[in-house]
Specification:
homodimer, globular, two-stranded antiparallel sheet, alpha/beta
Chain lengths: ~200, ~200
Amino acid sequence: MTMIAPTEPLFHHSSKAYLGLIHYPVLNKNAQIITSAVTNINLHDLSRAASTYGLRGFYVVHPIPDQQELAQRIMSHWTSGYGAAYNPTRKEAFLKTHVLAELAQVLSDIIEIEETPPRIMVTGATPRSGQISFDQARQLMTSGPPILILFGTSWGLAPEVFERADFILEPIWGPSPYNHLSVRSAAAIILDRLLGRTSS
Amino acid sequence: MTMIAPTEPLFHHSSKAYLGLIHYPVLNKNAQIITSAVTNINLHDLSRAASTYGLRGFYVVHPIPDQQELAQRIMSHWTSGYGAAYNPTRKEAFLKTHVLAELAQVLSDIIEIEETPPRIMVTGATPRSGQISFDQARQLMTSGPPILILFGTSWGLAPEVFERADFILEPIWGPSPYNHLSVRSAAAIILDRLLGRTSS
């Protein structure tokens, strides 16, 4: 086996990609529409993944002011509180994380930055008619208007979010028929498939 | 853009791969060797990812009996407690998750199953001399003896674990120089790079 010497990979920031984590409207296990709770670890893991894959922004979307405030408080510990000195890489990860009440505000924010509305791509664990492949989705990253990739918490995005989408991404499958990944794992894998590369 | 109809992917279970999550010896932020605490969400996310990617086993390695018991108690809620009825997919994910005190016990367990010792592959966020590429690592999955992929909690695996490894996997890089992923995200991405595929 040939071994490789560690080298600094070449970095590029050509994609205009954004991430959104939706807490409403999402489904519960009985396919009812609910509002899910903010989860500390989701903010951390998705902010870190968004930074690794060079995303231009990560939006935490929650309609309830108390929950928005909780998300802000968690982040401020790391961006300006004790955590900022303890772990500067966490501060860096949160710099592009924003908390907004609804998808419409996310679209407005991206339009303000990019001067054009993003294409919306939704993700989920269920195969759906009209879905696009990972290869097709990867092409969308390298040209055209900005793209907003949406993930649902709890049991996934509600049908009304799918209806607003320009693209539905095919589900992740491994070699097993089991495909119940956490939203943290699914987001990491999808960002890697769409924006990652192996350095060798 | 051509859209694809959702189809059932073909599943295969040809790899003899195992996952290990190490809590000792790992490093803290000052590069000192420590024992880290069991984290509820790591058990869930890595068990679910291991099931998705068809691993033969996931070992949670912790030297302290109280912490082993905590890990077992978390899992038993989902395998035989209330959670087993509430979410059967979580029960399924934990079926191949085992808690052991040290790496030597993991090796013995795999030898008992496979009748041969596994090759050990370690992972980390720092480039190292002698590391192998993801392409090379992917080849290791499809032939030869079983392979045990090790992940470190906290600030990563201690040097003594690297010394015991047969292979050191290159770090994950996205398009950004930031590469501070959580162990949950890193494990998901590595399993996908080594064992995943796109269905189309």
